[in-house]
Structures are given as structure tokens and as C-alpha cells.
Amino acid sequence: MANINELLNGWGFGKQTAIGTANLVAAIWRHTNLNTKPWAKVPVNEDDRAEIGKGHEFPTQLFRSHYNMPTYEISKYASSEFLAWAMSFSMGNVAVSGSGPYTYTIVPALGATNPTGLELPYFSFVQQIRPGGSAVLDEMLVGCAVKGWKLSIKNSPGRASAMCAAECVTTGQYTSPSGITLPAISTPHEFNAGMISALTFNGINYLSGGSAKQFVSMEASWENNFRPGFFPGSGSQDGYQIQGRFEWGDRVFAVQFVVRVQSGSTEYANLIALTTGTATFTMTRDANNSFTMLIQKMGFNVAELGNTDGIVTLQITGVQLYDPTNGLVTMTVTTPLQGICQ
Amino acid sequence: MDSVFMRSPEGEVKEVEATAEKLTPLMVAGWHQVPAPVVANQKPVVAAEEEKLHGEHQ
User: What is this structure's pTM?
Assistant: First the structure.
């Protein structure tokens, strides 16, 4: 018997050299996780019920089929370290500069020029309960990728006002026992909504001027829509087929936000006039920890009137347009940690 | 100002000022970061901002 609070999570902040090659311990960090479930391994069996010639319709034999690994959410209060990790592993094209702190510039990779085609960087995920001679759980999942993330900003106090959840997938390949001694738990540099230092969407500044104090909340998300990774030669473990690649499909970048309505609000006018502009969202904790999401060309798709806690609001659904020069979005994260996605 | 070395899809390597404004158009055009080249008697690298990057790669 073990309490779920004993579950230790660690995963690669550096990328694996290949999908089947696990991270070395030096590139693995240990973090807390608001998702209280372990990452389940789901081997699937099949039987012979569909085969005739047995004299009856009932199954008589079991066969190993494949590892049908569920997606797994790493849910964290937004920090410079975790945002750098989630953005880098989900988008793929990363440039890092500086000598401490380090600044990561991240854009979505393009299949035509990405050195690994439609595949993103992979990492290993370690989960342990009482590792050692009598471990309840000790395994390392190899070949994990970030399928998508959600960044939520709310008008509430504390760390919960800025959260980031990364949804991950894995091949089915694993090592048990992991052979990994997890490092001490990391102390990330977390943000909260009070640290927002730039908030201008499509020409409307929600931090100063007439629209100041009108911003209520925002949800931004990224989805890689990975294609199934089973193919001839994809590999096997324990006699079960595993996935050998995660290729992105049609990627989706979504942004929704809620603002209060006041006399002279220009959101409707921008929508009807098909106005587009950049959108800049920045959180600054200090000189060593900041995050900027620069959407290169945002228009408004829907502006729906409603109310939030009794205040008349507009829920805006943005449409993020691809700019031929600057692309879709640039994430810039400054953090003290070196080697993320390197 | 920090700088990084970037490589174009065609293999050209350039030292670039490490700002989002300078890096974004390159990365969108398919450039990727590479380690600083280690060359004996290395010559100074021309700063990328002096060049018209998009005209070269489109």
C-alpha cells in the first residue's frame, strides 16, 4: 500500500538523442505535479474470436497486441522553467542565448526545414514510489513528446492565477526499474497574474489607457494532433507493439480571452473591420524570469457578450494568422536553467 | 548583446544578435541554432543584422 503523495515525478528537461534512447540522469529534473495520477501503462491483448475453424464462436487464445499508452497531463503553476520546457518541446525550433539567465526563443518548427521532419524533440518520464529494493513503482517511459499545452490566466489571487498544463504522449517503451536516482526537487520560479507586464491584443492595451483594468482572463492552447505512431518496424516491448514516432498533424493554436465591456470598447469594431495586429502577453517576475507570447497577427473571430461574476463581459475568440515573415507566434522565455530542450 | 549561431536550410552559418526580433524571421525561414564554430584562426563573422535576410532565403 502506498499513498499517492509518495509518487515522485521526474522528466527530461534536455531532449533525447533519439526516440528510443532515454535521457541521462544529468538532463532529468524533478518537479511536483498537480496531476495526482501516475502515468498508466496499458498493454492491450487480443483474442481469436473472429477466426473460424474452431468449431464455435468463442475465443480460445489470447495474443499480445500493443501498448495503448494514454496521454498524460503534467499540470503546473506557470513558471519560467516549465514554460520554457513546454513551449520548446511542443514547438520544436529553439534558440538559446545568454550565460545565466538563459533566454529561449521558440517558434513552431516547419516540416520542410525541421531536421527531424514532422517529429518534435523527445524526453523520458520517470515515476517512482519508494524507489530501491522494495519499490512500489519505479519506471522510466522512453520516447515521450508534448502533444499540446494550455496556458490559463485568471482573475484570482496566487499561483493558480497563472497555470500551464502540458499533455504528453509516450511510445510504450519503458525501463523498469528505471535505474534513475532522481535529483532533489526543483524550485521553479513561478508567475502569477499580477506579474503581467505587457497585455496588448490587436491594438488594445489592457494595462494602460482606456482599456486598463478591463482584462478578466485568458486561455491559450497549442495542439500538435499527433498521428498514430505504429508502423512496420515501429518496435516492440514485452511482445507488445510500441509506437516508433510522433508526427504532428494539423497543429492548432487557440486563444480566447474575456474582457469587461465599457463605453467605447473597440473589440466589436475590430472584429467587424477585420482588423488585425500583434498580440503581446508578458509576465515578468524579475530580471531572470520572464515569459512573452508574441502573436504575430491576431484578428477577432467571435466576440460574444455575456457576464462574468455579474459584470458585463465580452468573450473574444482570436484567430491567429500566419505572417509570411514572422510566422505564427514567438515565445521568449528567460529562466535561470540551462539546457532545456538542448 | 548576446549572439547565437544559426544555420540556414542551405547550410549557411551566421552569427545573429539574440533578440526575438532578429531571430524570429530567421527561424520562421527554417534557420536553426548550431554550436559556435570552432575554427583555427577564426575570422570575424559578419553580423546578420547588416544583411537583408529575407531576400536571401525566399
Answer: 0.93
Which ranges of B6-58 does DSSP label H, i.e. alpha helix? 20-28, 53-57
Question: Any chain B CB within 8 A of the CB of A3?
Answer: no
- From chain A, the residues in CB contact with B33 under 8 A are 94-96
C-alpha to C-alpha distance for A14 and A16, rounded to whole angstroms: 7
- Considering only the beta carbons, identify the residue of A97, A110, A332 that sits closest to B30: A110
Cα–Cα distance, A162 to A155 (Å, whole number) = 9
Average pLDDT, integer, range A278-292:
98
A 10 A CB-CB count for A310 gives 6
Per-residue pLDDT of chain B (58 residues; tens, 9 = 90+): 799 999 999 999 999 999 999 999 999 999 999 999 886 655 555 444 555 445 444 3
- Look at A113 and B32 and tell me if their CB atoms are within 8 Å: yes
Q: How far is CA A14 from CA A190, A211, A270, in A?
A: 20, 41, 42
**CB contact B47 to A (< 8 Å):** no
pLDDT digits (tens, 9 = 90+) for A192-219: 999 999 999 999 999 998 899 999 999 9
Residue A335 and residue A153: Cα distance in Å, rounded?
20
3-state percent helix, strand, coil for chain B, nearest multiple of 5: 30, 25, 45
